[in-house]
Amino acid sequence: MASDDPNHYSDSDPFRTPTLAFKQALCFSCWDVSFNLSRCSACKRVSYCSTKCQRQDWNRNHKKICKRLVALNKQKGYIPSAGRHWNDYYGEQMLEFFRSNTLNPSELGRLIGYEPYCYHCYRRESQLEDGVKLNACQSCLLTTFCPSCRQTHPSGECATLQDVAADDKIVVDLYRRTGKSSTISFTKFPRKQHFPLSSVTDWYDYYTRLSDWGGFKSKMNRNLKYLASDSKEREFVEYMRCGTNTTTIQLTLIAALETIISNVSTRDSINLHIIGAAGAEFASVPAFEELLHFLPSLTTLQLSLVGLNVVEDLKDDTKTPNLHTLQCCTMCTMMGRSICITTWKGPYHVYVDTEFYKTPDLAAAFHSGFSVDEQAVWYPTITHLAHAPHPTLFTAGRHFEIQEEMRVWRNLRAEFVKNAEVNKWRGMSPSLGVCGDKPNEVSYRNYWWYIVKQR
Fold this sequence. Notes:
Blueprint: H1 19-22, E1 38-39, E2 47-48, H2 51-74, H3 86-100, H4 107-113, E3 135-136, E4 144-145, H5 155-178, H6 203-210, H7 231-260, E5 269-275, H8 279-283, H9 289-294, E6 300-307, E7 322-325, H10 330-334, E8 338-345, H11 348-351, E9 362-365, H12 375-385, E10 392-396, H13 399-411, E11 416-422, E12 431-432, E13 442-443, E14 448-452
Parallel strand pairs: 5-6, 5-9, 6-8, 9-10
Antiparallel strand pairs: 1-2, 3-4, 7-8, 10-14, 11-14, 12-13
Helix pairs in contact: 3-4
């Protein structure tokens, strides 16, 4: 159903738009589920539940990109299904990204990356016979097939994609009710005693043994799937699971601090630098209070967010960086505990030469992608961090990124406090890759982690 507000959803944040909408399983404007979606007759890349929604989306952004999508469609043309391989599709996709200048994430880039294709022969609709359409899997809605190929895909893969679709719908409902597109789930009250994260196995243990939510122990499984029948409780557990995609940052940081600082449970202050800070890191800022709640002796947390995507910057007419104080819970405030946040816009290797830099206890770069994207921009910072006076935590979503990053570090002769391994504090809510190394490749926030040793 169309909203009365033509800008009721994001104009500029492509990550807020659900994957289901890019895959034409939801109305691209209002995100409603409908069995009567109508596609844009020109580009055929987006679908709407009503003329009103189509008009709203046209005025919002689609009129800017529709002609470009039409032009890309015309460059394809019919291709036989025989002999097609994934590398054929992947090469075509990369060429399309280059032609449209959408290697950086954008709504246009994601419409290109998420364009439906046949799971078996890797052809898009514009590469099929005239008038032939793709059919969607009715279970996950995210996989499609051409009429010439089998109409099935592996059940385990379908189950994972059903999780992607279910979490998409949860985020849509959350945004409609609160205006927020991500959930943050952490403990309500500070602990009186430190229990190391290393003492528990996974998020289930964290929620049922270390947090305030122990009452849900018998009502969800280790994958944070609700097992009972109460609709309100189900909603809460779903938000907990989706919330791991945000709070993964804080728990990964705590695990890293426990690895590098032997007396972390008695420290009264900690200084952290977040390198390449962007949307995900800023969205998770309220959850940094979990460090105060988890480490009872911690009184002051100094947090510096540094990166090219930082909105606020040092002002030319002042000699201090932008300083913010995070509003903590009542108990932390009464105890005199605080989180001070500074922001600096620019690359980290430039920041370290300013008067505002103070050597951190730990620096961290989440999903930097430095070995894949913007290598020239990142390289001076990586060169510095290879022999920095502090340890640095890195995370990545996919194995090939880790392999490439290890190659870079070896060339720089870096050493490691922790070698690359699967992070048990990775996000639990999967994301469908825009253009992965295989069909229907999903990733998890901060799936891999490692810590580069200080010099």
